[in-house]
Amino acid sequence: MKITILDGGIVNPGDLQWQPITSLGETSIYPGTRQCDIARRTAESDVVLVNRMPLDAASVARLGPRVRLVTIMSTSCDLVDIKALEKRGIAACNVLDYSSVDAAEHTLALILDLLRRVSFHSQSVHDGEWSRLKVWSYWKDAPISLDKKVLGLVGFGAVGRRVGRLANAFGMEVLATCKSPKNPPSFAPFSFVGLDALLQKADVVSLHCPLTQDTRELICKKNIERMKDGAFIVNVSHGGLVNEKDCAQALIDGKLAGFGADVLAHEPPGRENPLLHAPNTIITPHMAWTSKTARQKLIALSGEVVRRWMQGTAINLLNKVKNAPCDES
Q1: CATH code 1.50.10.20 for 2-98+291-327
Q2: Residue pLDDT tens, the chain, 329 long
Q3: In terms of Cα–Cα distance, which of 92, 209, 229 is closest to 158?
Q4: Are 302 and 12 in contact (CB under 8 A)?
Q5: 329 contacts: CB under 8 Å, gap ≥ 6
Q6: How is the beta sheet containing 91-93 ordered, strand by strand?
Q7: What's domain 100-283's architecture?
């Protein structure tokens, strides 16, 4: 069994062990791969792993003739043409729930920073303002307490549920909207509501839903207008959930008090991205998942996906191709 990892550099820049994957077969690991190198690097591969490397139909066509499994080392599959893989008889699998703890903590970090204005005032101090003012206390923008504020969760999967529990510990009331409301959490106050009610009532709206045709640019001018004046939005899910131009304008107009994100519609962003120039906006470089704990878990789960496929008991299948080495006669 020959395994090739085409873009392992971000998952593991050298601080982790690849052993859960390398123990399964002869493994070639590349920090990154250009499209023109796909054919050469996968010429003898049985299994290919990618993290965030795009595999469109043209890229799939370049995969070596022996490739029978592509494992996406991520939950998001938007950069891989799953149907093109299926047409070639190549199974596709992804990895689930390796960073929900980290994504939830990052969400709370953004909420706390936006409302408490931590990094904003820290920068003011580093710029020398406290020394110049010669006072024992000052604030440029009064912090806002989370206690008794309403958090609206759009999506209530593993990450959304954990965010709700953490926010509840800060005294926030939690509302959630999702396709199939079930298993309400034990903490209170909590309610399942429709999207309209959530937008109207929430002081902070946090996005935790998949990116689909129905949710693309969910945060747009029309829906922002339904929100409270001075509300906040946080997105640690998918950049495409937000119409960035509409959001930036709402921040400039003062309709929104702040916006925090770990994801953008196009990554890395061009300097023309309007959110880069909007007030009270915190953007981190798609790093919520990058703790050593989460990345090592991602490697371990990726290895488990490959191992199960090799045994003929594939998990997390994204297409209808179920062939595995044990199928060969």
Answers
A1: no
A2: 999 999 999 999 999 999 999 999 999 999 999 999 999 999 999 999 999 999 999 999 999 999 999 999 999 888 999 999 999 999 999 999 999 999 999 999 999 999 999 999 999 999 999 999 999 999 999 999 999 999 999 999 999 999 999 999 999 999 999 999 999 999 999 999 999 999 999 999 999 999 999 999 999 999 999 999 999 999 999 999 999 999 999 999 999 999 999 999 999 999 999 999 999 999 999 999 999 999 999 999 999 999 999 999 999 999 999 777 655 53
A3: 209
A4: no
A5: none
A6: 26-29, 2-5, 47-50, 69-72, 91-93
A7: 3-Layer(aba) Sandwich (3.40)
Number of residues written out for the chain: 329
Using CA atoms, how far apart are residues 174 and 310, in angstroms rounded to an integer? 43
Residues of the chain with CATH 3.40.50.720: 2-98+291-327, 100-283
Whether the Cβ atoms of residue 12 and residue 50 lie closer than 8 Å to each other = no
Closest of 32, 27, 29, 26 to residue 7, by C-alpha: 32
Angstrom distance (rounded) from CA 188 to CA 154: 18
| Residue 46: C-alpha distances to residues 39, 59, 93 (Å) | 13, 16, 14
What is the pairing mode between strands 47-50 and 150-154? unpaired
- For the chain, first and last CA: distance in Å? 16
Strand order across the 190-192 sheet:
190-192, 173-177, 150-154, 204-207, 231-235, 256-261, 281-283
